[in-house]
Write a structure and sequence with these properties.
single chain, 169 residues, mainly beta, OB fold (Dihydrolipoamide Acetyltransferase, E2P)
Length: 169
Amino acid sequence: MSPEQNHAAGGDATAQYCTFKVDHLLIGIEVWRVQEVIRHQPMTHVPLAPKEVRGLINLRGQIVTAIDVRQWLRLPERSDGGTSSMNVVLRLDDEAISLLVDEAGEVVEPAADTHEGVPSTASEQIRTMFSGTFKLDGALLLVLDTESVTRISGENVAGAPHSATRRAS
């Protein structure tokens, strides 16, 4: 049974999360969704793209859309312009998408009984971006809803369904 099927079936298997920081926030993504974590890559600007789309990177011949998580969360820009950011490359169905984050963290396996939903007092945007939280020692882990990545600004990141990833010629 895949992690998705286990989760959908209400399975009690403990999930592992790859963590990263954006500003003061600790964010987690299921480990099986993360393809790789790499240093900052040169990017090509995409005219008329949503502001969250920082550009396109060439990842060994695969064109990958880079989403600036700071822009997405409406946080202030980094003082270095993002040149020291990290790329967390996610595999979503048949496409790869890179999330630009401040720093990569560690893999954690929080106890299932520390899981809670996103607080009702959070903004609508936050409630649609995150699927829940875990209480960790001294931190709150926000679990990213990876499907929300493809709904940036109410449209697919490349403007059309499943077109964000293509092979470079």
